[in-house]
Design a protein that fits this description.
Blueprint (H helix, E strand, L loop, with lengths): L4 H21 L14 E10 L14 E5 L2 E3 L3 E5 L28 E7 L5 H17 L6 E7 L3 E8 L2 H12 L2 H4 L9 H14 L6 E7 L9 H14 L1 E3 L2 E2 L9 H10 L12 H9 L3 E8 L8 E7 L5 E3 L3 E2 L4 H14 L9 E10 L4 E13 L7 E12 L2 E13 L8 E13 L1 E10 L7 E9 L8 E10 L4 E2 L11 H6 L6 E3 L4 E3 L4 E10 L5 E9 L4 E5 L5 E5 L2 E9 L8 E11 L2 E13 L4
Parallel strand pairs: 5-6, 5-8, 8-9, 8-10, 19-23, 25-32
Antiparallel strand pairs: 1-11, 1-13, 2-3, 2-12, 4-11, 6-7, 12-14, 15-16, 16-19, 17-18, 17-20, 20-21, 22-24, 22-26, 26-30, 27-28, 27-31, 29-30, 31-32
Helix pairs in contact: 2-3, 5-6, 5-9, 6-7
Length: 617
Amino acid sequence: MRSNVPLRAACLVLGFASVASLAQQAEPIDSKLEEEVEVRLVLVDTLVLDRRDRPVADLTRDDFELFVDYDAREIDTFDVDCPEGPTDDPRSVKRPGNAWATPAPDASRKVVLAIDYMHVLNVDRAQVLEHLRTALGAATPSSDEIMLAAITGDLRVEQPFTDDRDVVLETLRRMEYDITLWLPQFDHEHELRFFRSLYELVDLLGYLPGHKAVVLYSNLPGPSASYDLAFAELAARCTNARVSFYPVLAHGMSLFTSPRLARMAVETGGRFTENTNDLTLGYARAKRDLTCRYVIGFYDRDTKPEKDRRISIRVRRPGTRTVHSYNFQFPSEEEQRRSTLDAAYLSPETFSSVLVRGHMFPLRPVGRKQWEALVAVGFAVDAEEWVADEIVRDVGISITGGRAVKRKIDRRVRLERPQGEAPATSEFVVVAPVKLRAGEYDLAVAVSDPAAATPRAAAAATVLPRLERDAPIVVGPFLGRAQRRELEIDVEDAPPPGDPSRRASLRAVEQFEPLLVQSATGREPLMALSRLCGVGEPGQADAERRLLRADGTVVATFGDVPGEVAEEGGVSCRTWLDRFPDDGLAPGDYEFELTVSGAAIASKRESVRFAVLPPAE
């Protein structure tokens, strides 16, 4: 009997051959599916020191090992900046005037000198300021840029970055006699506000290129094991912003130490200075370390926001150690928006732009000690920015009085594309009504494009005077345009939409758009807002209003009407709202003049100058 196994084997071979033949004849099917993967570049500034704490300057990419979340990763970008090679680690000097040598004087380093007023008492504050003044005064000239900051529970930028040493020395002198800095003790129950101030400082520095060092003078108490999440977030922000902390124990030579400051230095890629009476040693170390850094970069595909990630960098050469930040994370869209506006508030000079303007108009007193004011933010949009029918802008307003933030307003506005072809420049004005006590205020305004790298900002100062009995005051005159596309921001103390008192309080505002630059084109319908306010009934008052050319020629006069009277909080105001000639004004310089007189007020004259520009061709 013959076996059938060979026959079955032959059939199997034929079957496989047929499948293979069909596979060769079949054409691949294009599914037309595409996958988008977001990839972000992470840069880690790394300092490599030998056993004598001197920088190691001759390493290559192959000498480094990179680990992310304990997994080995490829180094995608590598750069080294070490123009002077190995230099000795600075040592303490007996007196601040015995300055240490300045490495690489033309390196243009950026160093922040920050004093922690929350944890440093008056005697140590004075000593820190004195040591810094003496050391900077005796130091050899360099192109370094220095920022001065104070942490008081809020972050105060006392002096933006400057390479003018005389300006820095003058700011240090002012800080020594600033009663808002040396008088309070800044008591607090926990350290979250302290960490929030550090976050704001790091975010601000993140908008500036290159690596930056923060020399923090502090006596921060407590064990390092607490506030783990806060330390992790600080290190992550430092990685994103390319910032390292160099804490200095402000006590000087002492048995006291600060495990928290030591942890801050280690996890942000800096170094801790303690047990020395040379309070400038930390600054010297920061300057030296900034002159020799490796920048190691890698592309990361896990871009989930606010996910904490761990970084470890090793060097294969024996006898060396690396100093770098320990964590990184990608901020959420909302966190990025908030930090952008906060950065502009803290240092509007850093982001100053002619395309953004801000002003606070004292509209009327609503009591002897309180005012209703209008904050106006003007900004421009170029024609090339209109890539869609609608664009988004984040608008921020920060009002500071007595070095403390009194009001902060953040809003997102959506702007519609002008009809027809977009003009070369479209101007918008955002207004926010606020109520504030009488006093001096600093205004910082910011406008940012969510897709842009940096914000645009402007600053202004305003005085809201106290209203005295039997002493009426003149408010204005203010210039404005007849309302065009004014955008109004609602704030907590403004009457809500639909409230009958809303129109009364903003009656004049609803009819004009404040003129933030004292110039306009002759075809714009201009207006002037003027008020006379006093405690109780202001009584009869004559208000002569005239529009004059620069040579004194009268262009127009306005009827001597008594003005609308409104009363609130025991204060009455007469309001005059004057519209300029409808046929327009010829190009040139003008002055709007207001003269008020009456039985209860001595004659007062106020004026505002402006220019009418020729129409653009």
